[in-house]
Every structure is written in C-alpha cells, then in structure tokens.
Amino acid sequence: MKEEIIIAGFGGQGVLSMGKILAYSAIMQDLEVTWMPSYGPEMRGGTANVCVIISDRKISSPIITTYDTAIILNQQSLDKFEKSVKSGGLLIYDPSGITRMPERTDITVCSIDAIEVAAELGNAKVYNMAVLGAYLKTKPSLKMENVVKGLEKSIPSRYKDLIEKNREAIEKGMERVKILSGK
Amino acid sequence: MAEKILMKGNEAIAVSAIRNGVDGYFGYPITPQSEVMETLMKEKPWETTGMVVLQAESEVSSINMVYGGASCGKKVMTSSSSPGISLMCEGISYIAGSELPCVIVNVMRGGPGLGTIQPSQSDYTQCVKGGGHGDYHCMVLAPASAQDMYDFVDWGFELAFKYRNPVIVLADGIIGQLMEKVELRPVKPRRTEEEILRVAPWATTGKPAGRERNIITSLSLDSTTQENFNKKLLAKYESIKENEVRFSEYMTDDAEYLFVAFGCSSRICEAATDILRQEGIKAGLLRPITLFPFPEKEIARLAGQVKSIMSIELNLGQMVEDVRLAANGRCPVGFYGRQGGIVFTPEEIAGEFKKFNNLK
Amino acid sequence: MDTLDIKRPENIVYRKPALITDNVMHYCPGCSHGTVHKLIAEVIEEMGIQDKTVGISPVGCSVFAYNYIDIDWQEAAHGRAPALATATKRLCPDKYVFTYQGDGDLASIGTAEIIHACSRGENIVVIFINNGIYGMTGGQMAPTTLLGMKTSTTPYGRDAKLNGFPLKITEMLAALDGTAYITRQSVHTAAAARKAKNAIRKGFEYSHLGIGLSFIEIVSTCNSGWKLSPVEANKWMVENMFAKYPLGDIKDTSIAEKK
C-alpha cells in the first residue's frame, strides 16, 4: 500500500496542518509517512501545498510529481495539479474555492462544501477537518480511532477542547462528500 | 516501545539536542532552518536540563559563541543555512585550528550569494574541503531523513569529542523541512563538571593550583611549531579516514551500474534505482553517510565491478570530483544535477541515467 | 641596603604579582600593556579567583596575553572576544570572565560583538586598551586615531573627510541598558594605575552580581607606533588623547538601581 497525496490551497486554509494530522493518523496505524511542504515566502498569504506519502514500506523519495490523490482548495492549485493526478486517481475539491470545474474524466472527482460544514459548526478553523473527512471517506484506509489519535498528537495540549470539534467536522465531512464522477 | 513522533528534520535537531545533553546552542535565524532555534526557544530547556539557548546578533557571533563554549569543554552547537555558513567559516577555521569539538548544522539552500531559499547541495565543496582558511577538515555527516537529523546530533558530538574536531551535519532544505516519524532514543543527561574535567582536561575550566594553565589558541608564530601542528592534524585526519567512514548500499551486490548520491538525493536515487530495476537494468546505489571521511575505498571497489558510475547532486557537480578520484579511471563517471532549488524526480534521474549509459 | 635587606617583607614596596608568569614580555618598553596585565593579575590574586577566571585575548599586540597571566585563556579571532566571553559566562556562570581587547579589535572589526554583548547585559568584564593605533601590524590608523595624527595609513595625518572621525565607543556603550559600569582610566602614573586597578576590581566584582557588563577603557600609549620615547608618549597622551578621551567614570549603575 502506498498513497501519494498533495493538499494545495491558500495559506491560512489549514493545508499544512491537515497534512500533519493525516500523517500522524497514519503513524498511529503503524504506517510510514513523509510530509513535505512548500516553504518560504509562499507561506505568507500565497499558495501553500504539502505532499504527504503514506506507505506500509520505507519511503524512498519524498519528492513526487504525480499523485494518487489531489486535495484542491483554490483555483491556482486546480490549474497546477489537476494534470498531475495519476490516471485512476482521486481529486477532491472545495467548490467555493474554484471558478471552473475539474476536466479530467479518467479519475474520481469529489467535492466537499467544507465552508458550509465549518459554518454549521460555528468554527471557521475546522474547515480543513471537513475536507479531511471527505478524503477519509473516499479513501478509507485509515481507521477513525487512529485519526482521533492523530488529532490528539497534532493539536497542542492547550487546545484539547478542540479535538471534539475537529472530530465532529471530520465526521460531517465524511457525510457531505459528493462523488461526482468516476467509480 | 520508544515513542515515535512526527517532526520536521529541523525540529528533530532541536529535540535531539535537548535529549542528548547538549550544553548550549547559539544561532541566528535563516531559512530554511529557523525551526531549530524556534523549537529550542519553545521548549525552554534552560528550565529542565539547564541547556543554554541564545539568539546571537549574527552568524559570525554565533560560531564564536560556539568557539567560546567549546573552549570550556561543553557540548555546544549551532545551525544555519548556506549564506550563514559562509559567515561562520572564519570561526570554523579557528575551531579546527584550536582542535575543539562542536556540531554545526548546515541546512543547505541554493547559491551563490543570497541565492534561493529552496533546497540545494551546493555547499559540498565548502563544507567537505574546508570553507575557511588554512589546512583543515571538518568531519561531515550527511543525513537523509528526520531520524538521521535526530541521530546525527549525538553521533556528531561523539565524533567531535573523540577527535577534538568540528563536525558539520550537512543537510538540505528538504531534510530540514520534511516531516517524518522520528523515534526518540533514550535521554542522555548533560555532563557533570567532573565528567567534563575527565573528558576535556584541556578545557578552560579555571586553573586550579597544581595544573598548568589551559590555553585555547590556534596561533603559533614559529614555523616549525606550526608545521608540526599541521602534521598532527594530518595524522588525525588519516585516523578519521581509517576509522570513521560510513555509507550505505542499495542493490549493489549484482549492480552493473552505480549511482552515488548523498542526503535527500540518495533517497530519490533509491526510487530511480527501483524504476530501472523494474525495467531489468541492474542499477545500484552507494550513499556516502560521511562525506569527510569519504567512502573512497568502497567506491574504488565498486568502480571495478560496474560499467559506469553517476554522481547525482543538487548542484553543478561537486562531489563528482571525489567520486572520480576514488574511481581513478576504473570506469566512466558521469554527473547529473539540478540547481536553483529545483529537485530532480526519480523518473528524471532514471531517464538521465539511460541517456548517459546509452540504454533504451 | 644589600639584596637580602631589600627582599625582607617589611622592605618590599613592589613585587611581581604571583600570577604574572616568568615569560619575557614581548611588549615594547614604555607600552601600557605590561602595566595593565599586572593590574589584572593583582586583582585576580587579591580576589583569590585564579581557579574561577577565564580570560579571552584578542588579535593585536596583546594576542599573547595568555603567555603572561597564569590563568586559563581563550584566544579569540579578531574582534570576536565578547562572543566567546558570552558563551563562556552563560555556560559557566560561576566563572569570572573577561576580555582584553585593543581599539582595532574592539572598536573596528568587533563593533557588532561588543555592542550586542553590552546590549544583552552579559555579566562579563571588558578591558579596552585604547592607544589610537594598530600596534601589531605596524602602526596603521585605528578607529580611535585622533584627527591630524600620523599613522602608516594616514601618513599626512588623519583627515576627517578622507578617514572619518575618531570613534568614542565607550560613550556609545554607556548608552546601552545592559551595561552596569563604564569607566575610562589610564596607567601613565602610579596614581592613575591605582585608580585603574580599583576600576578593574569593581568590574570583576560587578560581574558576579548579575547587573550587566563592566567596561574599562584604558587610554594607553604606543610609543613605537607613535614614534615617541616612553616619556614623550606619556606627555603626548596627556595633552592630546585625554582631550578627546577624558578620564573618569561615565556610568556606574548602583546595584539597588539595577534590581
């Protein structure tokens, strides 16, 4: 099992922390992971992306240019990464972040209205967890108990009350994800 | 089971320093390694282990703080990235010339000049061949994972004190920024004053009655004294070459072709090797883990076995010179590299490999 | 009085401090360095802190200070002594740590290091020898060289338009919150040397009170560099150097005030 994922959007959307929670959840399931961010000035309000690799074997190259899954949260990222999804792969996007629909027909395309989920839960910060829920539903390789452990590991202890909120957002994201095309 | 934590290579350096009884860290912010000092400051080790952490006014100052701390027999370290290491080279030369132990982490970015903040391996020559003035070598360790970053701090201090020599951990922006699973090793407490007196009897710990004063200096105006000192250093470097070479091999047993790559490049070459093997091409990989001392004997041996060697680096071709010297004409040695912070992919390397070897 | 009489304790009016080694000093006759070394050695001896003191020597004539005072020493790169001292004191807070630096070392190439050590309030002592010239390299202009003063790189005299102005770094450092004690002294007479010694002692004592950095400038002669006899050099210093660099305490923050 090896899953190569890119998560891309604006800085501030929680792209990097979503990747971190995903990676930590995989560690809790005894898998190998790498988490490689774009770094530097891009962090300041511009685009941010992170590549997460999850594998049951030791991971060699952390540098990847094609992806099993692309999680896309803004138009720039869709333009940049849609073509890099492997044939038969998965693309998850947030419709409020994009202005044109994905065009690929050889991949599974899903959408998640994560802003709506966050608004329902009354907490804009759980936006990224709703997106994560959409991913966990469509690629059910990680057990929820390990995701919760991953959350506990990733969130600083002073925000422990947020864990339940995040878990709720993940679950709502799992309910709300829409499979638009593909299998 | 030891605790496994997801952390960046840079964070692993900081956590390892605290857990391995480092006495002092002195640094200056620079991308892509600022998380080292940020993590240390957040962890406040001065309240737990008593470790000193100080943000200096420049890299010039931070390396000279390391010089002062090392003079006291303490386990002291700094970290920086390429332009900062250039500023430190004066101090590193003094530290080497005064035979002091310390660990310096260089999380390389592209140059020359201000260059780019993206990953690079273009300080190979600077760090492996010297960098500062005079005849000296640092021992250079090349990590390829966050776990290596964690482990090489302790290994670095072990070597530094064994040989009274500066050790450079030569990482790059990828290894610094990459988050991976890191296994925390058992904690080593800081050395006590008594232990320091035993391990570093040469240190400036204050002259008690009954011993000569300890002087830390790199100065000798007498040429014969200086030449004898240079020869002493040479003997030390020879001993390091004899005893401390470390490398790893991947698929070399039956290899007909060889990659040589260090740090993050070695991982990408491992993936390229897999691609070539799937195509029935018998490729293999040698990863030097120590760059000084360089695994020249092993490369020489493999150069007699394979049809060709390719050195793969994120620079214009620096380590390839040492690979050629080691191969010494036994087989052709080629090079492929990317610069400017662009990182090659496994597919790209496999393609370049086939081009170089005229394989379809 | 024969030799034996002179050596009787009741007759001794002057002796070499126990902490001054028997090495022959390389300093020129008339140079202030020897006197300042002696004062430091006396202070360390009188305070009984030989086993707790670490000196940091500079690059310049006093690079070999470690040959003359019998304590543990670190020899710094040019200008960097305050960085070494910072780490030494922070890692070994029970030690007395001092730097010994000339004007080229401290006020030119080492400005960043001294300013930030002062600014951080490092609990160290800095002995600053200001003779307005680079002695070791053969008498070139220093940042503290007076206007009109001839050196090998200002052969027609220092010209403000060409070479800038003399740097009163001691006054600059007094403006920094991290400094506890800033004074300017000299050693050209026995009385001046006694005062300088008191200042050095105060600096060493302050360094163990956690109230910040003590900085003792010693306006000094370089008769070789100045191309004057020792006596003429003293006279020239009094008439010219003291006019620009007046002696006396510039700042003495009482402990109560600091705490």
Describe this structure in words.
The complex is a heterotrimer of chains A (183), B (360) and C (259). A seven-stranded mixed sheet of chain A has the order 2-3-1-4-5-6-7, with helices on both faces. Chain A is an alpha/beta fold and 183 residues long. Chain A has a single domain (2-181), classed as 3-Layer(aba) Sandwich (Pyruvate-ferredoxin Oxidoreductase, domain 3), CATH 3.40.920.10. Chain A has six helices and seven strands, in the order E-H-E-E-E-H-E-E-H-H-H-H-E. Chain B contains 13 helices and 15 strands. Chain B has a seven-stranded mixed sheet with strand order 3-2-4-5-7-6-13, with helices on both faces. In chain B, strands 10-12-11-14-15 form a five-stranded mixed sheet, sandwiched between helices. Chain B has a two-stranded antiparallel ribbon with strand order 1-8. The model of chain B has no long low-confidence stretch (mean pLDDT 97). Chain B has helices at 9-19, 35-43, 59-71, 82-97, 124-129, 146-163, 173-177, 193-199, 223-243, 263-278, 296-303, 319-327, 346-356; strands at residues 4-8, 24-27, 52-55, 76-80, 102-108, 139-141, 166-172, 179-183, 215-216, 247-250, 257-260, 283-288, 290-292, 308-313, 333-337. Helix content of chain B is 42%, strand content 19%. Chain C has helices spanning 3-7, 33-47, 81-91, 103-109, 111-120, 160-163, 169-174, 190-206, 223-226, 230-244, 255-258; strands spanning 53-57, 72-75, 96-102, 125-130, 133-134, 140-141, 179-186, 213-219, 248-252. The relative contact order of chain C is 0.14. By secondary structure, chain C is an alpha/beta fold. Chain C has eleven helices and nine strands. In chain C, the strands form two sheets. In chain C, strands 2-1-3-4-8-7-9 form a seven-stranded mixed sheet, with helices on both faces. A two-stranded antiparallel sheet of chain C has the order 5-6. The chains are: A alpha/beta (183), B alpha/beta (360), C alpha/beta (259). Chains B and C meet through helix 3, helix 4 and strand 9 of B and strand 1, strand 2, helix 3 and helix 5 of C. Strand 9 (215-216) of chain B pairs parallel with strand 2 of chain C.
